[in-house]
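Researcher: We're reviewing a set of sequences before deciding which ones to prioritize for further study. For each one, I'd like a predicted 3D structure that I can look through quickly. This is Nucleoplasmin-3. If possible, include the structure in token form so it fits the rest of the review sheet.
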Amino acid sequence: LLGCELTASTKSYTFQVDEEDDSDHILALSMVCLTDGAKDECNMVEVVGRNRENQEIAVPVANLKLSCQPLLSLDNFKLQPPVTFRLAVGSGPVHLAGWHRIMHREDASFEEDDDLSEEDEEDLPPIMPAKK
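Model: Here's the predicted structure for Nucleoplasmin-3, in token form for your review sheet.
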């Protein structure tokens, strides 16, 4: 599980993996919320990563305010490390929660599913043309 807190004194958190690691890493952000001590001000959290041309790009993912939206569910917003979470506006504290999955490349291969045999495919009804 991933968890970090962004505050006025700690404005960013970078999640990175070992470059020599031969695995695929997925980081999923599930929730962003204001925690105890937050002021009623806008707190904007952005994700900083790299695009295909290897240029740094920052994308806002949450704009929280204690009086109207103190919590935001991001439904496991998937990111590719390395990635930095930055408190672009506000003083927080803002808590980020998510998970990190490591997929070893040799585990990523799969065997064909033999559950459907040719007999099962023949049992399907034929597709009929639509009536006009």
